[in-house]
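Quick note —
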Amino acid sequence: MASISLSFSSSFINTTAFPTNLRTHHPKSSNFIHCAYASPPVKKSSTSSSSKSSSVTKKRHWKQGEFPAVSETSIGGGSKRTPLKYVKKKLDRKNEAKAWANTVTEALSELIQKKQWLQALQVFEMLKEQPFYQPKEGTYMKLLVLLGKSGQPDRARQLFDEMVEEGCEPTSELYTALLSAYCRNNQIDEAFSILNQMKTLPRCQPDVFTYSTLLKVCVDATRFELVESLYEEMAERLISPNTVTQNIVLNGYGKAGKFDQMEKVLSGMLESKTCSPDVWTMNTILGVFGNKGQIDMMEKWYEKFRNFGIEPETRTFNILIGAYGKKRMYDKMSTVMEYMRKLEFPWTTSTYNNVIEAFADAGDAKHMEYTFDQMRAEGMKADTKTFCCLINGYANAGLFNKVISSAQLAGKFEIPENTSFYNAIISACAKANDLMEMGRVFERMKDKQCQPDSTTYSIMIEAYIKEGMNDKIFDLEQEKQEMIADVHESD
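Predicted structure written out below.
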């Protein structure tokens, strides 16, 4: 096995507007002609001036209490001012409340970022009980997207209804986020129900993003008859498919192996002036052939897109690395990585994950660990896929003690535990023939409200078949059928 060298070159100024000098207005004194024999009028004039000034009301240039220099209270006899210590206490309480509000808001943002949906909802409920709380569209949008990605479409619907009850007016974007939550969980009928609801609301009409989301779930579910009906509906509403929409359909046709339809859409894009292919189109086509293991076709289309004037990006090279890695073409994988460095493209988490996955599939723990260590040394953050690959790699190499340490390290790094993560651990337990631990992991998975999928049941059933544990097989088969029935019922 060829080894890979993964070396790296690797005030604000407080300006106060001061008022101009204010002077009390005095009328100009009249000019008097004094007789040479007249007595000096000094005392008389002083008495007269004093008497006159006392009879005239003093003109105030500020409201009472606003400017102490001319206020009545500053002269004496006014109302008492609030002691400074009470003002300070009031300001302290206000600052503490503001700081607490900021702390809760920051905690909510952090939980959303970490994809911890249950804790995020709990903090959000705490936030809603506070007197300063005001419903914000942005917060609901983030939570709806999080719940959709976490496999919780029904909770997303509940949150959406609560938002409407609070008086936050729904928008097309919020409806699309809710629709996307159902699409992510393959609940197509419910998604179309939301689409029909949007059509009845003048301010929430579906747009190209709404239809793109629906097109994606339809092609992923191989419901290609719905794709055509959606295109017709878009034409009736004068909504033109953009490059993103076409890329979604291209990806769906490619995954389903419908290469004729895929090339038909692609040819239309090459001739179109409104939705020309871009680097995402390039990545989609390369990803389709790369995942199918058709390396020659992948390289052929790479050259075609380059000739068309489309420049590759980091994700493009990551797709090539992943495809070469799956075929164990380590020389070409190394060449692409060196080419990335030459063009000053950064190695990302996906870059490392593809290399780690290549060595993991081959059970090459040595090079896998070396890549992971360099990844950490460069300060690159590992994600769920990183640890799934590590766990699979150690299991393939028979190093089951390192499977446990990898799972513990994932917990230390607060890596989100999704279905793929638990499937990797369950598969490792099955390979180690530790069926008792496999069962415990399965129960923990359900306790964490992480929904098992068909892969989960297939791994466990196969492990129990090898040991002839028919009662366990029967229970899992029943549970699997209930899961499938629940999915169909929700659809």
